[in-house]
Amino acid sequence: MDALAAIAEPTRRRIVDVLRLRECSVGELVDTLGMSQPAVSKHLRVLREAGVVIAETRAQQRVYRLEPGPFRELDAWLAPYRRMWTHHLAELERHLDRKERGGDL
Q1: Domain HTH arsR-type: where (predicted)?
Q2: What does 75-91 look like in DSSP terms, one character per residue?
Q3: Which residues sit opposite 24 in a β-bridge?
Q4: Mean pLDDT, rounded, for 69-90
């Protein structure tokens, strides 16, 4: 599974949102998200297999954090769409400015 498919699922996006702010153990994610440990672990496995998160063993627990590589790839994939929408929004802004000034439509 690729990163985009992995984070398409809403619960996994919630996990990613939490991990964006800080590293967490499974227990911390369970408490933060109000989900069962097996459910959180299942989603973490999918995210780990997609390369979105990595786990580090610390003492008796696994601590998860985001892996930046897949997000760079997603950002690169989204770049042309951002440029397209920026262009369209700029055109809309020019159109509205002309309309506000009473110019040609």
Answers
A1: 1-86
A2: HHHHHHHHHHHHHHHHH
A3: 64
A4: 90
Residue range 28-69, pLDDT digits in tens: 999 999 999 999 999 999 999 999 999 999 888 899 999 999
Distance CA 35, CA 15 (A): 11
Q: CB-hemisphere CA count at 13 Å for 10?
A: 1
Radius of gyration of the chain measured on its C-alpha atoms: 20
Long-range contacts of residues 66-71, Cβ cutoff 8 Å, at least 24 apart? 66/16, 66/19, 66/20, 70/2, 70/3, 71/3
Instruction: Please state, in angstroms and rounded to a whole number, the distance separating the CA atoms of residues 78 and 99.
Output: 31
Q: Which amino acid is at 93?
A: E
Q: Which string of b and e fits 41-72 if b means at least 16 CB within 10 Å?
A: eebbebbbebebbebeeeeeebbbebbeebee
